[in-house]
Design goal:
It contains eight helices and five strands; from the N terminus they run αββααβαβααβαα. The protein is α/β, with parallel strands linked by helices. The protein is globular. The termini are far apart.
């Protein structure tokens, strides 16, 4: 099995991209489909943006419409192929196991996340398997780094408009809906 590569350093470009992603994701807070989950895919060497997306589970009535999966799907369509080697994904929250597995299958070089699964679990259900663990147990290699700019990413979860949305998510979850 390939082991995930780890490097503790983040660049000024990483900071710029993550802050831009937080601003992009925060725009959902003023819509009926609020979400703290956003993803951005850029060229690893060039930094050229390829695709960005936000969570659309409720809007698309699809439990798999997480921001990371949507960004990978849209990027693959744009590139007319499923492989994203040569690209890095930034995400406002640590990818769940489904999203991290998708990043591995897409062959992303690197995943940089902000808030943690534990942070998200304060407000919504999560699968408690760290992204690094999913990567460690895979045959595909991917650098997984985070949390990075965790406080900034957590402002998306803590925003009063998002808090109101989470209350409706909780009510829906008790009824088996989301």
């Amino acid at each position: 099995m390939a082991r995930p590569k780890t490097t503790p350093n983040f660049s000024a470009a990483d900071e710029q991209r993550m802050r831009e992603l937080v601003r992009f994701t925060a725009r959902t807070l003023g819509t009926p489909h609020r979400s703290p989950f956003g993803a951005l895919i850029v060229g690893t060497r060039t930094g050229e943006p390829l695709m960005r997306a936000v969570n659309a589970v409720a809007r698309e009535h699809d439990a798999a419409s997480h921001a990371e999966l949507r960004a990978v799907r849209l990027a693959g369509k744009k590139l007319k192929g499923p492989l994203l080697a040569g690209y890095t994904m930034y995400t406002t929250c640590e990818p769940c196991p489904m999203c991290m597995a998708n990043a591995l299958w897409a062959r992303l070089d690197r995943v940089v996340y902000g808030a943690t699964i534990g942070d998200a679990n304060r407000y919504c259900l999560q699968i408690h398997i760290p992204a690094t663990e999913v990567a460690r147990r895979a045959d595909m290699a991917c650098v997984v780094q985070g949390p990075f700019l965790r406080e900034e990413c957590n402002t998306l979860f803590d925003d009063p408009r998002m808090q109101k949305a989470f209350r409706t998510w909780s009510t829906s979850k008790r009824n088996g809906k989301r």
